[in-house]
Design goal:
Layout: E1 4-11, H1 16-29, E2 33-36, E3 40-41, E4 48-56, E5 69-74, H2 77-82, E6 87-96, H3 103-106, H4 116-122, E7 126-130, H5 132-139, H6 145-154, H7 162-172, H8 178-190
Parallel strand pairs: 1-5, 5-6, 6-7
Antiparallel strand pairs: 1-4, 2-4, 3-4
Helix pairs in contact: 1-7, 5-6, 5-8, 6-8
C-alpha cells in the first residue's frame, strides 16, 4: 500500500493534538505503520499549528511535503487556505468554516480574506466545508470541533469500520468527555 498523508492544521488550543492522536491510534489498530509528527507552531499563543499523520505499509518519515497531502483537515478557514499547496491534485480539504482572526487582522494591519471556500473551489480544490463550531455546540461543547472534523473525515475512510473509530475514541478521549465526543463525531459524520 502506498503511504497516505493527512495534515491537521489550525490555531493553537483547538484540539488538533487530540485529533492527531485519535487518527494515529485508529490507523495503528488497522495494522498500518504510522508516523505522527510533533505539533509545529505557537500552539500556546493562538498561532498556526500543523500536525502530520502518515500511514501505510512502511512509513520512514513523519514529514509531508508540498503536493503530498491526501487530506488536509482544517480547524479554521484561513489555515486551510494557507496550506492548500500541500494538497495532492486529487486530495481533499475537510474544513471548519470558522474564522479566527490572526494577529495582523486583530491589529488592523490586514483584513481577513473574503470568500476563501469559493476561491479554493475556483482553483479546482475539492473542499468539504461545514460549520463545525455549530455542530460542536449542538453536541454540548465548543471544544468538540475536533471530533466533528474527525467524524466528517471518517466519511472518506469507507474501509475503516465505525467500531474502530469508536474504539479509538474510547482509548484517547478522557472518559468524562467520551459521550460528548461521540455525539460530536456522529454529527460530523452525518453531514452531507
Amino acid at each position: 500500500m502506498k503511504t497516505k498523508n493527512i495534515m491537521i492544521v489550525g490555531v493553537g488550543g483547538q484540539g488538533s493534538l487530540l485529533a492527531s492522536k485519535l487518527l494515529g491510534h485508529l490507523l495503528i489498530g488497522q495494522g498500518y505503520d504510522v508516523k505522527v509528527s510533533e505539533v509545529h507552531g505557537m500552539s500556546q499563543r493562538g498561532g498556526s499549528v500543523v500536525t502530520y499523520v502518515r500511514y501505510g505499509e512502511k512509513v520512514y518519515s513523519p514529514v509531508i511535503d508540498e503536493g503530498e497531502a491526501d487530506f488536509i483537515v482544517s480547524f479554521e478557514l484561513l489555515e486551510a487556505s494557507r496550506y492548500v499547496s500541500f494538497l495532492k491534485p486529487d486530495g481533499r480539504i475537510v474544513t471548519n468554516i470558522q474564522q479566527i482572526d490572526p494577529m495582523p487582522v486583530i491589529t488592523g494591519a490586514a483584513s481577513y480574506p473574503a470568500d476563501l471556500v469559493e476561491k479554493m473551489r475556483a482553483k479546482g480544490v475539492q473542499i468539504d466545508a461545514m460549520d463545525c463550531l455549530k455542530l460542536a455546540e449542538e453536541a454540548g461543547s465548543t471544544k468538540a470541533v475536533n471530533l466533528v472534523l474527525m467524524g466528517r473525515l471518517s466519511h472518506y475512510f469507507e474501509d475503516i469500520p465505525e467500531s474502530a473509530w469508536q474504539e479509538a475514541m474510547e482509548a484517547i478521549v478522557p472518559q468524562k468527555f467520551l459521550e460528548l465526543n461521540r455525539k460530536a463525531f456522529a454529527l460530523g459524520k452525518a453531514q452531507a
